[in-house]
Design goal:
Layout lengths: L9 E8 L11 E2 L5 E5 L2 E6 L4 E5 L6 E6 L5 E6 L6 E5 L5 E5 L7 E6 L5 E6 L6 E5 L4 E6 L6 E6 L6 E6 L2 E8 L2 E6 L11 E6 L4 E6 L4 E5 L2 E6 L7 E7 L2 E6 L3 E5 L5 E6 L12 E7 L2 E6 L4 E5 L7 E4 L7 E6 L5 E6 L3 E6 L4 E7 L4 E6 L5 E6 L3 E6 L5 E6 L5 E6 L5 E6 L4 E5 L5 E6 L6 E6 L5 E6 L4 E5 L4 E3 L2 H5 L27 E7 L4 E6 L3 E6 L10 E4 L5 E6 L5 E6 L5 E7 L1 H4 L31 H8 L11 H7 L1 H7 L11 E8 L11 E2 L5 E5 L2 E6 L4 E5 L6 E6 L5 E6 L6 E5 L5 E5 L7 E6 L5 E6 L6 E5 L4 E6 L6 E6 L6 E6 L2 E8 L2 E6 L11 E6 L5 E6 L3 E6 L2 E7 L5 E7 L2 E6 ...
């Protein structure tokens, strides 16, 4: 059987043995409830000594290495390692996440500390600069960040007696920080002569600016301000790792194994030497102390936690033990008792009681231990060592039975046979030795078939066979006890294995992913009775599979907690527990097994929240064996919105083409045309891959989107207004609860979300910087203050914004598959849901992160794709529509029931005050009561129901419904076919807007004397559109094939259409009925043209590089134009109907004589003199200037000339419509540019009287109508774009001063190394002067006198007097402006020069100075507001890529 579903049983973490003492400090505290909080591996542990019970926080995805306790002692902050490490703040009562802080640190978070009132948190990173970061943790917002130090920082603390002050310490430094505004400024502690400069390991702040710190040599250094004032020598015999301040005083703990208590003035109270106590041992080293009242908690380097009661200080109580440093690999379970045995590289073997959760025996061996086994009667324990030996001990008293060394390499696996007579020992030298137990472990056989190290062994139940796995992934069988290899599969077929711990074999195929051959699964153990298999892998994950699982990529449940590789996993003897051990985190996890039948009562184990989605209820290979996806959804999931060139790339590309352009623009360029165009009407609506993107505004207009345009449609007047702020496809739209603002999200490399006003059509806020590729869904919160958005990057990132401030509040990875919808909870602004492919997730904001929990389906349904979702009438109720037509009803995260609503997917759902409305692929709109129990009414979208006022025709009955909205007594419906319909509650349906359906649109023709045009598209329709104010589709005809071109005859009676299969037809232009059709070519017809005048000939160009000329009257082909080397793109007739101009894909411009098709060579000078009936060519001297600077990257696809031969309109692959003056000679002509289409504009045509320009968007399927505004008509509007790609110098040049200033680069001054460091040790205190080669190449600092170096040795130093700045001559005017101001009613002048702000008193001539800048000041301004008198802001140069750094100061205080 293939494991099509994950097993329905479950594991729950019950106990963790161990404590992280190594490489961590200060990570052990009492909470307010007198519980003990600490961490091990990737788990935060809250241990109650009274009840001997543990609670676990599992929100981390990797090793936790730092911990801080909130001053109220309920909340805990923990920081982890990893590529993108984050900080979690969690509640020690409920072990739920309160806030997540992320996206700032890299590598890991070394230290954490809360401030006095617990509002702010400081963190230190493990990156190269050891960044220090201050957070407003509730909001998840970073307040300030600064590089900490070049070397490791070990401890950081807020000064609890001075606001906004911090102290950090580490390798050979201590720094005193002040937080002012959002700037953190450090000052280095001055060691002076009072003590040696050395590494400071821990610190605590006290009153009166005193700071106590523990040093590496065991001294305590006492600081006042930034100066060292005294040392307490020999406080400990070695490094002081931990210092804890409490009401009574201070506790310190060191490497010497002693705890010292001090009073508030740091006078010693008492010493407790843990090495001398009953539990102590030589080499005990203290890493963490916590003193509360008469209890002291101590954490040691070797993973023990002691609790000391002060009165009985020589009897410490051992609360927790674990393995020490070194990898942990050996694990065995006792065959009859609830005991587990572990052995590690720390050379100890330990026996744990699974019932009492305690260590009951420990024995130290000579060598690191790599594997263990207990024989069938539980008497002997065998241990395999790293040096190739193995030892057998008696379990009851841990005395040695035998020690044998037959091999030189590590023993990785050993097992007793089920009958207890043999022991098989697998070695890294690829052999397995068999020993006889009764013969005092004499060697009786060896198995030598493997070519690689032995990883796993299993005996058969009758002890006659052994199977092995080795490092090559090979599975071999041997006959016992001799060790002869068995090669016959028949012999092995019937063998029953006593245990299953092998990772390769038919029965466990399913534990491997489908398409991988990696060996990252370290351990497996089969539970035959429960038919489950547990595995452990290199990623810290424990998985449960069904057993046997035969097909690769089986489904599983997964559990996280271990940080790095899990080395071994075993079932307990009675299958009640699973024991797993972590290699590097050397922790032992005990998991309770909850079988199927108990699950039903145990709904409380609904997924524990975690940021790494810990309960993938299904497997990673979700889509392999589910019912087929609906075709429409399938299509949509395969859409990619990635572009070769994004509009954001244009400035960069233009930069690269600068040289080319300089040479070309030596000639004077033609100026841009005087005419301009304005977008007037757009036919189309984006429904094929979007949903719920159609709404009524406050005043009853309709807002939706198509291409890159937000459209507001007034249905009474049949007019449209446009939001043109986007520059690429809009993919989603939502409306503010007050129905006056709209948010739209677009495609882009760094895609933006625009929030704009539907009345003024002005943007209110633009959000970008946190998504990639595009935005697939947006939603406002009920109060309208927040906005949620989902990206279409690989992890479908979810971002929560405060959109008015433009600030990101929270961010999280959504899912690896597409998310279709995000909905904010209308009752609780911190909650939201997302729905998508196999995905329904319930999120809540936690600081800067979002915590998601998968919807719990249970037995009620299957994990379906969700297409839409809404909240119901309470905060717990949510409803989602599935791809199979059901509506799922959720309470909290649990699926309560499902209701069949539609045939095929439910694409849209809308909540009403009393009830719901849904729409599906079946073209039905259904109204429901408020609990989805009764369907109150249905409406079918049928052609028969169309009301007379419709602006077009329905193409088919029951089109797929993608958006529904209610308001103003109507139901508004958007369909996949690009139609917007309004359904009256009584039944009639009005069609308001429509466009082409999915598929590219290329064919466009305007009528010779009427305001109508024809389009033909890959959607296999030919349509006629009215361009007069009625703006509607007049007629439509379905074609057998899609088409790429069309053309009206000169008399307007016939319409020729070229199709994609190489055929073309002529139809009656009024009825669209066929007149005649031909099929002479195999490739698509790319252009088709009637000759001017009587329209005697028809030229038909195809993609197989030929043009056929037909006589229209006789319906015969009369000529073929040959000679093009590539497909034909455009054709034009001359005015006599005798000559054809042709463009090809190879950028050739060719000429042919009609009707025979003879090729002509015409010099370019002559081409200009020919009068052309139409000009749609993109090649030739007359339109050389239409090709942009970046012509290699993008193509100009189409052009069209007005009938007065003055203005040439073009469309290109980037979606720009441009107007040029004709002819456009010389390269890179000037133009006016308009953005509305998203990607390539496939066709542009002027109407017969040049009053309108019609443009087609290829993939956005929209037809846009622009009005042409003649030169005299100028109404100033923002959409007239910049004049051209390049602004050449001739446009008015620069004044020489301005030019010079424009070219100043400030990087030279801000040298690559900072000349004037803001912090550091004063010269006479420095160890030595930097060597000459470290000097910056140009230094404003005079070289230091060499005497300083010798002065340090032995001579008595003269104190260096401080200089005081008295007067500064000079003012920076050469490259600055508006930087002199009067202050104090004209008594003072403020200005700047060099790096100094100067306040100059006019009467006395005296100056006072602001000297906090460390490089040139470039700008200065004075706050004019009466509330902020004398506040000045100055900005300086700074060395990192010349940013400005702003400082505010008060001129009164300087």
């Amino acid at each position: 059987m293939a494991a099509r579903s994950a097993p329905s049983c479950h594991l729950r973490l019950e106990w963790v043995y161990g404590y992280r003492g190594h490489q961590c400090r200060n990570n052990l505290y009492y909470t307010a409830a007198k519980e003990i909080v600490y961490f091990v591996a990737g788990v935060g542990v809250v241990y109650s000594p009274r009840e001997h019970r543990q609670k676990f926080y599992r929100g981390h995805s990797d090793d936790i290495i730092s911990l801080a306790l909130h001053p109220e002692r309920v909340l805990v902050a923990t920081g982890q390692v990893g590529k993108e490490p984050y900080i979690c703040i969690w509640d020690s009562y409920t072990v739920q996440t309160i806030s997540v802080l992320k996206d700032v640190h890299t590598h890991g978070i070394a230290c954490l500390a809360f401030d006095l009132d617990g509002q702010r948190l400081v963190s230190v990173g493990l990156d190269s600069k050891n960044a220090v970061c201050v957070w407003d943790w509730k909001r998840g917002k970073m307040l300030s960040m600064a590089p900490g130090h070049t070397d490791r920082i070990f401890d950081i603390s807020w000064d609890l007696y001075q606001p906004n002050k911090l102290v950090s310490c580490g390798v050979k430094h201590i720094k005193f920080w002040s937080l002012c505004g959002n700037a953190l400024t450090p000052k280095r502690g001055v060691f002076g002569k009072t003590g040696d400069l050395q590494t400071i390991l821990c610190l605590a702040c006290a009153r009166d600016e005193l700071t106590y710190s523990g040093a590496l040599n065991g001294d305590i250094y006492v600081w006042k301000g930034i100066n060292l004032i005294r040392t307490i020598q020999g406080a400990h015999a070695a490094g002081i790792f931990s210092m804890n301040a409490c009401e009574e005083g201070f506790a310190t703990g060191g490497r010497d194994g002693c705890i010292r208590l001090w009073d508030l003035t740091f006078k010693p109270i008492t010493v407790i030497d843990l090495r001398e106590t009953d539990q102590g041992y030589k080499g005990l080293s203290v890493r963490s102390v916590c003193w509360r009242g008469d209890h002291i908690l101590v954490g040691t380097q070797d993973s023990e936690i002691f609790e000391i009661v002060v009165q009985e200080r020589n009897k410490p109580f051992l609360i927790m033990q674990g393995h020490c440093e070194g990898e942990l690999w050996a694990l065995a379970v006792h065959p009859t008792k609830p005991l587990a045995v572990t052995g590690s590289d720390d050379r100890s073997v330990r026996i744990w009681s699974l019932v009492d959760h305690a260590l009951i025996a420990r024995c130290n061996m000579e060598e690191p231990i790599r594997c263990a086994a207990v024989n069938a009667d539980g008497i002997h324990l065998a241990l395999g060592m790293k040096d190739g030996s193995f030892t057998v001990l008696r379990v009851r008293d841990m005395t040695e039975v035998v020690h044998i060394k037959d091999r030189k390499e590590a023993i990785h696996e050993l097992k007793y046979s089920p009958d207890g007579t043999y022991l098989a020992v697998g070695c890294n030298d690829s052999s397995v030795d068999i020993y006889g137990v009764a013969q005092r472990y004499k060697k009786v056989g060896e198995c030598l078939g493997s070519l690689s190290f032995i990883t796993h062994l299993d005996w058969s139940s009758d002890s006659r066979y052994l199977q092995t796995n080795d490092g090559n992934g090979k599975r071999l069988f041997y006959r016992m006890p001799g060790g002869k290899e068995v090669t016959s599969t028949e012999e092995i077929k019937g063998v029953h294995w006593a245990s299953w711990t092998c990772v390769s074999g038919l029965e466990v195929n399913g534990i491997w992913p489908k398409y991988s051959d990696i060996n990252d699964i370290n351990s497996v153990d089969g539970n035959y009775i429960g038919q489950v298999l547990v595995t452990a892998d290199d990623y810290g994950i424990i998985k449960l599979f069904r057993y046997p699982c035969l097909r690769k990529g089986a489904k599983f449940r997964k559990y996280i907690g271990h940080s790095a590789h899990v080395t071994n996993v075993r079932w307990s003897h009675d299958y009640q527990w699973v024991i797993s051990i972590g290699g590097a985190d050397h922790s032992v996890f005990q998991w309770k097994f909850i079988p199927e039948r108990k699950l039903k009562d145990a709904l409380h184990i609904a997924p524990q929240e975690s940021l790494a989605d810990s309960h993938s209820d299904e497997s990673d290979s979700d889509l392999s064996d589910v019912p087929e996806l609906d075709s429409e959804i399938e299509q949509e999931t395969q859409l990619t919105y990635r572009r070769q060139v994004y509009k954001e790339d244009l400035p960069q590309l233009k930069e690269q083409c600068k040289e080319k352009q300089k040479s070309a623009t030596s000639k004077r360029r033609e100026r841009a045309p005087g005419n301009s165009i304005r977008l007037h009407f757009v036919h189309g609506y984006r429904g094929y891959d979007c949903r719920s993107n159609l709404f009524y505004t406050q005043i009853g207009e309709i807002v939706y989107h198509v291409a890159a345009v937000g459209v507001i449609y007034n249905r009474q007047q049949n007019t449209q207004r446009f939001y043109l702020g986007h520059d690429d496809d809009i993919l989603c739209l939502t409306i503010h609860p007050l129905k006056d603002y709209v948010a739209t999200g677009q495609v882009g490399r760094d895609p933006s979300i625009h929030i704009w006003d539907t009345e003024t059509i002005k943007p209110l806020s633009i959000l970008k910087g946190h998504h990639q590729c595009g935005i697939s869904a947006v939603d406002f919160s009920a109060d309208g203050k927040r906005l949620a958005s989902v990206g279409i990057d690989d992890s479908h990132t979810i971002v929560l914004w405060d959109w008015k401030k433009g600030e990101k509040l929270s961010i999280a990875r959504g899912s690896k598959d597409k998310i279709f919808v995000v909905k904010m909870n209308p009752y609780v602004p911190d909650k939201l849901i997302t729905a998508g492919i196999k995905h329904m997730k319930f999120w809540r904001k936690a600081g800067g992160g979002l915590i998601g929990r998968k919807g719990y389906i249970g037995t009620l349904g299957k994990n379906d794709t969700m297409m839409c979702a809404v909240y119901g009438w309470t905060e717990e109720m949510a409803f989602s529509g599935t791809s199979t037509g059901d509506v799922c009803i959720w309470r909290d995260i649990f699926l309560v029931k499902t209701v069949k609503a539609h045939d095929g997917p439910v694409f849209s759902m809308h909540a009403l005050e009393k009830g719901f409305v849904t729409g599906g692929k079946d073209g039905i709109i259904a109204l429901w009561d408020d609990s989805f129990e009764r369907c109150l009414k249905t409406y079918a979208i049928k052609r028969a129901a169309l009301a007379p006022g419709s602006k077009g025709l329905l193409l088919e009955d029951n089109p797929s419904i993608r958006a529904i909205s209610l308001g103003h007594g109507h139901i508004l419906v958007g369909t996949k076919n690009g139609e917007i319909l309004e359904v009256d509650k009584s039944g009639p349906i009005t069609l308001l807007v429509q466009g082409h359906m999915e598929g590219e649109v290329w064919g466009l023709a305007t009528h010779p004397y009427l305001p109508i045009c024809a389009t033909v598209s890959d959607d296999k329709t030919l349509r006629i559109w009215d361009l007069s104010p009625s703006h509607c589709m007049l007629a439509v005809r379905k074609l057998k094939k899609g088409g790429r071109c069309c053309c009206f005859s000169p008399d307007g009676k016939a319409l020729a259409v070229g199709l994609n299969d190489g055929s073309f037809l002529m139809a009656n232009a009024d009825t669209l009925e066929d007149l005649v059709s031909f099929h002479h070519r195999k490739d698509m017809i790319s252009d088709i043209r009637f000759s001017p005048g009587s329209g005697k000939y028809l030229a038909v160009a195809s993609h197989d590089s030929f043009i056929d000329i037909y006589n229209v009257m006789s319906s015969k082909r009369v000529g073929i134009c040959k000679g093009a080397t590539s497909y034909i793109t455009h054709i034009d007739w001359d005015i006599r109907g005798k000559l054809l101009q042709v463009n090809t894909g190879a950028k050739e411009q060719l000429f042919f004589e009609a009707p025979r098709g003879k090729k002509q060579t015409i010099p370019s000078v002559e081409v200009e003199k020919i009068a052309w009936a139409s000009w749609t060519s993109v090649l030739g001297l007359c339109c050389e200037g239409i090709w942009p600077v970046i012509g290699e990257v993008t193509d100009v696809t189409t052009s069209c000339l007005t009938s007065d031969k003055m203005v040439l309109a073009t469309g290109d692959d980037l979606g720009f419509v441009k107007l040029f003056r004709y002819p456009t000679k010389g390269k890179f002509g000037k133009f006016k540019r308009y953005v509305a289409h998203s990607t390539h504009v496939t066709n542009v045509r002027w109407t017969y009287d040049d009053s309108m320009l019609v443009t087609l968007g290829g993939t956005d399927m929209s037809l846009m109508v622009w009005t042409n505004e003649m030169e005299g008509y100028r109404e100033k509007r923002p959409c007239d774009s910049e004049e051209s790609d390049i602004d050449s110098e001739e446009d008015g040049g620069y004044d020489s001063d301005v030019t010079r200033e424009n070219e100043i680069s400030y990087t030279i001054r801000a040298l690559s190394t900072n000349i004037r460091p803001m912090f550091g040790i004063k010269p006479h205190l420095q160890q030595k002067e930097p060597s000459t080669d470290e000097r910056p190449p140009v230094s404003r600092a005079p070289p230091q006198p060499e005497k300083l170096q010798t002065n340090n040795v032995g001579k008595k130093k003269r104190p260096i007097e401080d200089l005081v700045l008295e007067l500064v001559f000079g003012y920076r005017g050469r490259d600055c402006r508006n930087n002199v101001h009067y202050l104090n009613d004209g008594d003072d002048i403020i200005y700047h020069t060099a790096s100094i702000g100067i306040l100059h008193n006019v009467a006395t001539g005296s100056q006072s100075f602001y000297q906090e800048h460390n490089d040139d000041i470039l700008c200065l301004t004075v706050n004019q507001h009466p509330k902020f008198i004398n506040i000045v802001a100055t900005g300086q140069v700074i060395q990192q890529t010349c940013q400005l750094q702003l400082l505010l100061f008060t001129s009164g205080t300087q």
